[in-house]
Amino acid sequence: MDSITQATLGAAIGVAVLARQRPLWQAALTGAVIGTLPDLDVFIDKGDVVNDMVLHRAETHAFFWQLLASFPIAYLLSLATRSSGLFKHWWLMTILVLFTHSMLDALTIYGTRLALPFSDHPFGLGSLFIIDPLYTLPLLVGLMLSAVKTNTNRLRWNHLGLILSTVYAGWAIGAQTYVTQQVMNTPEAGELTESQVLVIPSPFNTVLWRIILRHEDSYSEGFYSLLDPITRPGGSIRFTRYKQDAELEAATKDFEKANQIRYFSKGFYSLSDDGRYVSITDLRMGQEPYYVFSFRIAEHASPLNQIKPQQISTRMPFGPALNWLKQRALGEDLMPPE
Q1: Around Cβ 97, how many Cβ atoms within 10 Å?
Q2: d(Cα 329, Cα 321) in Å, to the nearest integer?
Q3: Is residue 77 part of a domain?
Q4: Domain span holding position 308
């Protein structure tokens, strides 16, 4: 999730654990700081742009390393605040903030290596978009009300914010499961396994869902709003199909950077050739033809020559994208802007 959400979640957990023992501002501030620590790995140069992408959310997001780091962090906090008698509270707050940071990240599609060093698998359920105001706002409002209220029950607002945000995350998982079931019943997905079907939320919401179907020689993209059955009963999901180049697949099968993206994207990638450069794109983050993570990995020669990867991401114009997103989420059958 985005840094603001992670800091807010950390602050809310800090208040829930420590606000009865320490000043509320101190509990919130330390929780927010710890909530941002795992994402500081973005400032580490990992060698090239592909490594920067696939090695983010690695060791700093792994439960094992977080557990080991939680003890010295809690010890330093207890010393800095002159509250060594509260070490257990500082430790509980630290481990909860670190663990929930990673668990929340794993609800997005990006890929979080929770099980390092025992497994390199990038977990990514894809139930939440990386920025979702409906998850963040209950936490933020609960914190603010707990800070401004003066009665003895003021912390209940923070607890309520944590409950509501957790319920919303559960709703997102349930909505994703429902949409996946609808997709698996379509003719386009009839012969595919669930590993070949990806259902992820569109930006900032859990009403409109983006669907990618991975075929042997192509991939398809479609959208489904939870309001579609109301606005157009009996209407089918419309998919647009995009061919994959089998020759490019064969030519790059041993390319290190291509294989890093293949693994990290769990097969949801595309290869393209503009006549000079061959590029690989992670299809999970963005939508046709705009993607966040697209990289040049080779240039034409005889044979195809690997190059140091170059990021060539493109972004959809914000105004038209937001307008389409709103209308399509409300159930209007509109083609995405190009």
Answers
A1: 30
A2: 12
A3: yes
A4: 185-318
pTM, 2 dp: 0.93
Identify the CA nearest to 280 among candidates 251, 315, 317, 301.
251
Please state, in angstroms and rounded to a whole number, the distance separating the CA atoms of residues 150 and 68.
37
Residue 332 falls inside a structural domain: no
The pLDDT tens digits for 194-247 are: 999 999 999 999 999 999 999 999 999 999 999 999 998 888 899 999 999 999
CA quadruple 95, 122, 295, 130: dihedral positive or negative? negative
Backbone angles phi, psi at 315, to 5 degrees: -125, 140
- Measured CA to CA, the distance from residue 109 to residue 283 in angstroms comes to 11
**CA–CA separation, 64 and 269 (whole Å):** 30
Burial of 53 (0-12, 13-18, 19+ CB in 10 A): buried
Task: Give the pair of three-digit tokens for residue 1.
Answer: 């999730």
